[in-house]
Amino acid sequence: MKIFIKSERRFIDVGTVKNVRELIKRLGLKEEEVLVVETDSKKLLTPDEKISPEWRIEIRKVISGG
Asked: Which of 17, 19, 22, 28 stands the most exposed, by the fewest C-beta atoms within 10 Å?
């Protein structure tokens, strides 16, 4: 499965993953640091959500400040 990392403007092949949590771990990121979006429907995916192989996935890093 290829995903798009928006902040780096590049695609990464992550192989097969079962759910969003596994995808985030495989990328070496923390759940609190990113938003995972299914780009065709613009749906925000939760960590426990299963991923369909035909989905187009985008990772967006979260920026917060105080």
From this structure: 28
Nearest to residue 37, comparing CAs of 19, 14, 17, 60? Answer: 60
50: closest CA among 20, 14, 13?
Answer: 20
Q: Which fold has domain 2-61?
A: Ubiquitin-like (UB roll) (3.10.20)
Q: How far is residue 3's CA from residue 15's CA, in Å, rounded to a whole number?
A: 10
Phi and psi at 55, nearest 5°, equal -70, 150
φ, ψ of residue 30 in degrees (nearest 5): -105, 145
